[in-house]
């Protein structure tokens, strides 16, 4: 990764690998544009115990996110499996710790989006995305969903919403992304990257 290029932070939590697969496809969409990169980061699980027992670096996949990853991004995508129509607790826990960035307005006018995966077709995909955008709006970010110019939105029989990309993982959470889901997730990354490049080129004082 080049230190000089702007980047889209793709921040996710994944238990069975479905959300991670979406994050990787979204990163491919970001990096299909020249002049911007994708930075994949995850968050540690949370535990009802008070003692930290997880390693500082995960055994596999993306490394854990820091506030600086968030502070310096040109755009943000957050992803989580659905938990009763809402994001999973580990991602919510991380976002709850971003008040320092909120106080400094670090994320104002940066584009953001969200993505999710569920075991069942009507398992709360859209409500999860809608609740995930709430903290992004509190940070003053510009939310970017998926427009219906992406024809797969009209053709999919599994995942895909105008609020963001979704995936139907199946009752064993082992169903891979199908073609429509891959195309929509990649399109979401591509759109976010395009907006990030456009907004990062604007002087901050002109974003009003």
Automatic annotation (TrEMBL):
Cofactor(s) annotated in UniProt: FMN
Keyword annotations: Flavoprotein, FMN, Oxidoreductase
InterPro entries from the UniProt entry: Flavodoxin/NO_synth (IPR008254), Flavodoxin_CS (IPR001226), Flavoprotein-like_sf (IPR029039), Flavoprotein_WrbA-like (IPR010089), FMN_Rdtase-like_dom (IPR005025)
Enzyme kind, highest EC tier: oxidoreductase
Tagged with keyword Flavoprotein: yes
EC code: 1.6.5.2
Domain Flavodoxin-like: 8-192
GO MF term list: NAD(P)H dehydrogenase (quinone) activity
Superkingdom of origin: Bacteria
Listed PANTHER family: FLAVODOXIN-RELATED PROTEIN WRBA-RELATED, FLAVOPROTEIN-LIKE PROTEIN YCP4-RELATED
Family: Belongs to the WrbA family.
NCBIfam families associated with the record: flav_wrbA, PRK03767.1
Protein name: NAD(P)H:quinone oxidoreductase
